[in-house]
Write a structure and sequence with these properties.
It is globular and about 50 Å long. α1 (about 15-25) links the parallel β1 (about 5-10) and β2 (about 30-40). α1 (about 15-25) crosses α6 (about 165-195). By secondary structure, it is of the alpha/beta class. About 40% of the residues lie in helices and about 20% in strands. The protein contains six helices and seven strands. The protein binds 5-O-phosphono-beta-D-ribofuranosylamine.
């Protein structure tokens, strides 16, 4: 079985990236993580990826200044050169332009720490607590032009417990992120493979 080639884009600690790399090691997993890219050269996840034997590089946004399209062109060149077929955003803290989103339409996933469409954007745990929610969670979705929009591939719900702090709630959600992201990537990889293997008429 040939595995789909996947890149993970990060900006920070990379715990979801790590979960994806480890899940993809299973022989029957339909994808492999071939590349990790970060817009931040000091992202802790880069070292973690290298420690796990995955090629990891920074493509810093800074030299490109306000020219987001030029930065994305540089990212896209790396992705294409590495033969990447699916891109997973995992704590990638930079809004993408329609250019990169369009290039990877149907092949780019994101994980977001809320039950979308509730709480797009930042500080999701604090906002859920402040609103007195009794349920919270995380979502894996296909990336489209709108922020934290796009078709949902997987969701997991957690309870908000009495006395929860932002940290406690975030940790409960993160454990679910690490479970559903590998499952969602497997689902997408299998779907794309079936589509590509389907006899053309
Ligand atoms: C996660 O909570 C993810 O849902 C959000 O950013 C955080 C990244 O954490 N998009 P990590 O870098 O995967 O540890």
């Amino acid at each position: 079985m040939s595995k789909m080639r996947v890149a993970v884009l990060i900006s920070g600690r990379g715990s979801n990236m790590e979960a994806l790399i480890k899940a993809a090691r299973a022989p029957d997993y339909p994808a492999e993580i071939v590349l990790v890219l970060s817009n931040k050269p000091d992202a802790a996840g880069l070292e973690i990826a290298r420690g796990l034997g995955v090629q990891a590089e920074a493509v810093p946004a800074k030299p490109f200044g306000k020219d987001r399209a030029a930065h994305e062109l540089a990212l896209d060149e790396r992705l294409r050169a590495a033969g990447v077929e699916i891109v997973c955003l995992a704590g990638y803290m930079r809004l993408l332009t329609p250019y990169l989103v369009g290039r990877w339409a149907g092949r780019m996933l994101n994980i977001h720490p809320s039950l979308l469409p509730a709480y797009p954007g930042l500080d999701t745990h604090a906002r859920a607590l402040a609103a007195g929610e009794t349920k919270h969670g995380c979502t894996v979705h296909l990336v489209t032009e709108g922020m934290d929009e796009g078709p949902v591939i997987a969701q997991a719900e957690v309870p908000v417990l009495p006395g929860d702090t932002e940290e406690a709630l975030a940790a409960r959600v993160l454990a679910q992120e690490h479970r559903i992201y590998p499952a969602a990537l497997a689902r997408l990889a299998e779907k794309i493979r079936l589509r590509e293997e389907a006899p053309r008429r």
